């Protein structure tokens, strides 16, 4: 019943998680009244390893792909029905299953709200950050979408981990670094001038010197947007220090490519950078 489902989706509230259940309580914890219980039980059984051997080897991946839709239908008040299944999928041995969850974790966070996200999704998110590049790219592509849903204190904890995205399993994976530059542009709106200068600035300068031109071009926009953000925030000290560093590292670089980088950065946002040049 779609009307009933929408009622639960829009009129529910966050529920605190329960730690341990008896077998009977465990069975009851999967009971809900939004969809036929037999249908939900059939869906939850998709994580049974025996089904992967007898039904479909990629059944767990299909289960992971559909999970946000199931969570939206059940509503956050019935998240307890899916929590164990989600954690099982998040630790699945197949990286394709974990990758599927990584690409949709930001959508699930919107459905569950900040309390359940902080308690149940953040630990999974942290695990994906340390996973294979095939999985990490999923959280990286939607890094801004996920972090903006967290409280400021929790969000700042990830500033220390952004540097780790510069290291990949394959150094030739330049698209990974390009995506990082794109996400950093969006992340400028989530952090203070001090955080931008202390944590995002070193990453931006590293990306500006990347060996791949596509990464460098995005990084030029990142640096110019960074100058704009600091300028608008009236952080004149940070702006001056940033411009001094740009001049020292690129404008006065002994390589022509470094001097060219400085010109390109100035060209992107010349109305903000020109007064400092």
TrEMBL record:
InterPro entries: ARM-like, ARM-type_fold, PP2A_Regulatory_Subunit_A
Residues of the signal peptide: none
Taxonomic superkingdom: Eukaryota
Keyword Cell membrane appears in the UniProt entry: no
Key word Secreted present: no
GO CC aspect terms: cytoplasm
GO molecular function terms listed in the Swiss-Prot or TrEMBL record: protein phosphatase regulator activity
Coiled coil: none
Record's keyword terms, sorted: Repeat
Protein's name according to its UniProt entry: PP4R1 phosphatase
Organism encoding this protein: Nothocercus nigrocapillus
Name of the gene encoding the protein in the UniProt record: Ppp4r1_1
């Amino acid at each position: 019943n779609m009307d009933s489902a929408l009622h639960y989706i829009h009129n529910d509230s966050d529920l605190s998680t329960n730690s341990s259940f008896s077998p009977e309580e465990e069975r009851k914890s999967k009971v809900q009244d939004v969809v036929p219980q037999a249908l939900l039980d059939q869906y939850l059984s998709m994580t049974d390893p025996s089904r992967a051997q007898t039904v479909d080897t990629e059944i767990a991946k299909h289960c992971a792909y559909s999970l946000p839709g199931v969570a939206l239908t059940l509503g956050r008040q019935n998240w307890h029905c899916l929590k164990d299944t989600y954690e099982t999928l998040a630790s699945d041995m197949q990286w394709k299953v974990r990758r599927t969850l990584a690409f949709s974790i930001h959508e699930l966070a919107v459905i569950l709200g900040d309390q359940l996200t902080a308690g149940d999704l953040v630990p999974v998110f942290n695990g994906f950050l340390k996973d294979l590049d095939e999985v990490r790219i999923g959280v990286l592509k939607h890094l801004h979408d996920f972090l903006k849903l967290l409280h400021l204190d929790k969000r700042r904890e990830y500033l220390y981990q952004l540097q780790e995205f510069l290291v990949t399993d394959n150094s030739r994976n330049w698209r990974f670094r390009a995506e990082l530059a794109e996400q950093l542009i969006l992340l400028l709106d989530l952090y203070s001038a001090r955080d931008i200068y202390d944590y995002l600035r070193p990453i931006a300068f590293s990306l500006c010197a990347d060996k791949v031109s596509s990464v460098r071009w995005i990084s030029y926009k990142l640096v110019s947007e960074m100058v704009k953000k600091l300028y608008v925030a009236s952080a004149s000290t940070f702006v001056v220090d940033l411009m001094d560093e740009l001049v020292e590292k690129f404008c006065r670089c002994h390589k022509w490519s470094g001097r060219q980088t400085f010109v390109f950065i100035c060209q992107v946002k010349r109305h903000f950078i020109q007064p400092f040049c």
